[in-house]
Amino acid sequence: MLLREANGAQFTCGFQCEEDCTSYIFSIFISPKKDRARGLYRDVWSANPHYPVKDNAILNFTADGELVLKDGDGSIVWTTNTAGKAVAGMNLTDTGNLVLFDDQKLVVWQSFDHPTNSLLHGQKLFTDQKLKSSVSLTKSSGHEDMYSLRVTDKGLFAYVESNPPQAYFSLLVNGNDTNMGRRYLRFLNGSLSFFIDFSESSDPADGVIGIPPASSAQYLKLKRNGHLKVHEWHSEVLTTITDLTENTLDECSYPLVCGRNSICATDGQCSCPRKEYFRRVDDRKPNLGCSEITPLTCNSTKDQDFITLKNIKYFNSIADMDGKRKRDSEMEEEYLDQVPGMPNRFSYQELKSATENFSKKLGEGGYGSVFEGTLGDGTKIAVKCLEGFAHVKKSFLAEVQSIGSIHHVNLVRLRGFCTWRSQRLLVYEFMSNGSLDRWIYHEVREHILEWEYRKKIILDIAKAKCLAYLHEDCRKKIVHLDTKPQNILLDNDFNAKVSDFGLSMLTDKSQTEVMTTIKGTFGYIVPEWQSSIITKKLDVYSFGIVLLEILCVRKIFDRSILEEKFWGARNIVRFSLQTH
After folding, report:
1. Which residue among 15, 233, 285, 561 is buried most deeply as judged by most CB within 10 Å?
2. CB of 570 closer than 8 Å to CB of 556
3. pLDDT at 381
């Protein structure tokens, strides 16, 4: 056993076991000074983490200068492969580096060149290396050694070792010139710094990740649960200095947080997909995952089907190992930068402050909630927070692409947007009188707008919507697809403006129709449009329904009215549509 004390801690090189001590791993571990006997030690490097040896194993430093680990049956488990390289001795440095050196004191082999689960001060992680999460000899959670940490030309990435590996965390750096040399990450006192291999003597080449300076020996470790933490000893207590993943990930963003065959719900709770098909491995420990009640086999696919799951989260696959494939968010950012006349980009904190932590809700719909806010200059705004997973990106891009670069007096102005983690927020001008439905769906006649106001609103909608601007005057033809009173907003003077372009379609003016999946609101989409062919006539029909509702000051498709009256009103619009 080799010992080295330095900077408030002790490094030990020897055999490690846990609990019953029937299996051993040759390791370097760190502990408070002279307190290893109390069990206060943590491994920072291992020679044979996947091949533990038994009691009668032998570690031999051969005459040829090779360090060899043999199991009790004589089989070679691990070796430094340094035979014939003039190795003169072995040393454990005060930084925790196990070194084999020659008679000139030059390094022939060192553990720093073969990282396993940790980085110590001064240690490097090159692009062709990786850290692997720790392996427990006795306490199995079912997914040890399933996480890895790697350096790419884009930065630092953490992966779950699926096939292929999927990234769940990244720290990106500037620069992508790979012809200059091999890139690496180095753990220094107070930072994780990116370098190019020939420029070690210069400043960091690409970026620095700040870490609180050490008061005792520190180490960076990829944990069994996927967290990336920096630890150090304080008065014989192991302290976490920082968790680099915790600042950007919630608990469900760690791929195996709930174990195999299990799901992490949006409230952070672990559960099995369906109780009739899966059961917990241990009812007292939900994070150990679930086992199949009836095993799945490739030979009985006719008895298998997909299960629809609701209110769950799946970690984001943000990049592949070499960075060739870009993250969805990166592609979205690049796309937004190319949209002509792009509105302002707000930070999430700026909008959180403006809306008083999203406390003043104006309304909500199928695509999220809208909150009132005030910017620093006193400007009133409305912030729409898109919700859900599948449709958020599509709705967000449709909205930005549709009205981000156009301006019309009867279109609600998009002042800006925000993308932050999975959040997608849109910032509009504030419309003090809310949506049109508040002013025409009243049983009490005194609360209904006077005819002059309603006539003005009809003309405003026509100018903004079907007749003049969106279909004919824009650079691209815009088909709104969701015209209804809830999407028509009124300002302080009851000027009407069309909003909510989340379902809209952009087509070239030469296109008279386009195939797509029709979506919208019942009552405002013509029912016989089953062919999925989109034309501007869909908006004309919707406008006709809204026109009738304004004229009649009630819902045309109210389920409480007689069916023949309901379809009679719609037939008036259908006739108008056919003759348009």
Report:
1. 233
2. yes
3. 94
Q: Please give the tally of structural domains in the chain.
A: 4
**Per-residue model confidence (pLDDT) at position 517:** 46
Alpha-carbon dihedral of residues 140, 146, 150, 152, nearest 10 degrees?
-170
> Of 206, 482, 500, 539, which one is the catalytic site residue?
482
Tell whether 229 is in a known binding site.
no
Residue 191: give the domain boundaries. 123-325
The 3-class SS string of 76-98 reads EEEECCCCCCCEEEEEECCCCCE
Kindly give the residue spans of alpha helices, DSSP state H, lying in 404-533: 437-440, 451-464
Is position 330 within any domain? no
Q: Which two tokens stand for residue 537?
A: 């006539």
- From 325, 351, 369, give the residue that closes a domain: 325
Non-local (6+) Cβ contacts of 215 within 8 A are 8, 232, 234
Q: Of 397, 430, 463, which marks where a domain is finished?
A: 430
DSSP designation for 174 = S
DSSP string, 33-55: TT-GGGT--EEEEES-TTS-B-T
Quote the radius of gyration of the chain (alpha carbons, Å).
Answer: 32
- Check if 102 is active-site: no
Cα gap 422→389, rounded to integer Å: 9
Structure tokens at 208: 């620095």
User: Would the pLDDT of 275 be above 50?
Assistant: yes
Check residue 298 and report its DSSP letter.
Answer: G
Q: Are 443 and 467 in contact (CB under 8 A)?
A: no
Assign 479 to helix, strand or coil.
strand
pLDDT tens for 114-154 read 999 999 999 999 988 999 987 655 444 445 578 999 988 77
Q: What does the longest C-alpha to C-alpha distance in the chain come to?
A: 103
In terms of domains, do 405 and 317 share one?
no
- Whether residue 332 is contained in a domain is answered as no
Q: Is 314 helix (H, G, I), strand (E, B) or coil?
A: coil
| Residue 115: CB atoms within 10 Å | 23
pTM of the full predicted structure?
Answer: 0.54
Q: Give 345: exposed, middle or buried? Use CB within 10 Å, 0-12, 13-18, 19+.
A: middle
Distance CA 544, CA 208 (A): 60
In this model, does residue 112 exceed pLDDT 90? yes
